[in-house]
Amino acid sequence: MFVEIITVAIIGFALVSGGAIVWDHARKPR
């Protein structure tokens, strides 16, 4: 359904953005 597609897209975007933030912190320790 359309709602399921949006939900998967939101969750996928959150995982990708969250992973990018963690990866960025891991690569650039402060």
Instruction: Report the radius of gyration as a whole number of Å.
Output: 13 Å
Mean model confidence by pLDDT: 90
Proportion in β-strands: under 5%
- Low-confidence regions: none
- State the shape: rod-shaped
State the end-to-end CA separation.
44 Å
Oligomer description: single chain
State the major sheet: none
Number of separate helices: 1
Helix fraction, binned, reads over 70%
Number of strands: 0
- The ordered H/E elements are H
Q: Which structural class matches the secondary elements?
A: mainly alpha
Description:
By secondary structure, the chain is mostly helical. The protein contains one helix and no strands. The chain has one helix at 2-27. The protein is rod-shaped, with a radius of gyration of 13 Å. The model has no long low-confidence stretch (mean pLDDT 90). The chain crosses the membrane at residues 6-23.
Task: Summarize this entry quickly.
It is built from one helix and no strands. The chain is an all-alpha fold and 30 residues long.
Would you spell out the secondary-structure blueprint of this structure?
Layout: H1 2-27
Notable features of this structure?
30 residues, mainly alpha, 0% strand, transmembrane, membrane
